[in-house]
Design goal:
Elements lengths: L11 E4 L6 E6 L2 H13 L4 E6 L5 E6 L13 H13 L5
Antiparallel strand pairs: 1-2, 2-4, 3-4
């Protein structure tokens, strides 16, 4: 979809405060839009699309506790080596 926006302008913003029970997610990310749309269709009591900015972005409202952030620590050299050896042993190519 051509929107006239540059990649830098196609952002994802997540808004919430400590008081309210809802999170607002504004995104142009295609995968995230699809995932949120599917979640909203399956669980309308927890998530809903509240706006479409008509430039390729959608805005969703989702209950706190339904959206999570996962922080992953960098792999150690030992773990990278072990994963590489396992992949070679099992015929996986990168």
């Amino acid at each position: 979809m051509r929107t006239g926006l540059t990649k830098r302008e196609k952002t994802t913003a997540i808004y919430f405060d400590e008081y309210g029970s809802m999170i607002e997610v504004q995104t142009h990310n295609t995968d995230l839009k699809k995932r949120l749309s599917a979640f909203a269709a399956k669980y309308p009591e927890c998530c809903r699309q509240i706006d479409d900015d008509e430039q390729g972005g959608l805005i969703f409202e989702i209950e706190k506790g339904r959206l999570s952030f996962r922080l992953t620590a960098p792999y150690s050299e030992e773990r990278k080596q072990a994963a590489s050896e396992w992949a070679k042993k099992n015929g996986l190519k990168f």
